[in-house]
Design goal:
Layout: H1 2-35, H2 42-59, H3 81-105, H4 112-139
Helix pairs in contact: 1-2, 1-3, 1-4, 2-4, 3-4
Length: 140
C-alpha cells in the first residue's frame, strides 16, 4: 500500500510540475505574441504550453547520478550533466516566465531586443530541461 501511495504522490507532483511548465509557456507566449504579430496565434500558445509542460515534467525531477566517493573509485570532480542542465534550464525558464508576467501585469512596453531575449531564454531553458530529463532517464 505504501508503494502505491508514494507512486501516486510522485505522479501528482510531476503533473503539478507539468502544469507549472504549461503556465510558464503561456505567460511567455502571451508576452511574446503580443509583441511579435506573427506569433499571435493559438497554435504558438499551444506549442509553448506543450513544450513547457514536457520540460518541467522531465527536467525538474531527474533521477540523481549514483554517488561514489573517492574511496570507491568515483571521481569527486565529475559533474552530473543532467543535474546541471536541469538546474540552469529551470532557472532560465522560470526567469523568462517571471519577466513575462511582470511585463504583462505592469503593462510595460519592452524594446523588441528584450522580448526576443526573454523568448530565447525560455526556449533554451526548456530545451535544457528536456535534455536533462532524457539523459537522466537513459542512465537510470
Amino acid at each position: 500500500m505504501r508503494f502505491r501511495v508514494r507512486k501516486s504522490a510522485h505522479f501528482l507532483e510531476r503533473i503539478g510540475l507539468a502544469m507549472a511548465g504549461a503556465a510558464s509557456g503561456l505567460f511567455v507566449g502571451a508576452h511574446v505574441g503580443s509583441s511579435i504579430a506573427v506569433l499571435t496565434t493559438q497554435g504558438f500558445l499551444a506549442v509553448m504550453m506543450i513544450a513547457g509542460a514536457i520540460g518541467f515534467y522531465l527536467g525538474i525531477d531527474t533521477p540523481p547520478m549514483p554517488f561514489h566517493g573517492p574511496d570507491q573509485g568515483g571521481s569527486e570532480r565529475k559533474i552530473d550533466s543532467a543535474e546541471f542542465l536541469s538546474a540552469v534550464g529551470t532557472f532560465l525558464a522560470a526567469l523568462a516566465a517571471f519577466e513575462s508576467v511582470i511585463v504583462i501585469v505592469l503593462r510595460e512596453n519592452l524594446h523588441m531586443f528584450w522580448t526576443v531575449m526573454i523568448m530565447l531564454g525560455w526556449i533554451v531553458g526548456v530545451t535544457m530541461q528536456i535534455i536533462a530529463g532524457a539523459v537522466a532517464r537513459m542512465r537510470a
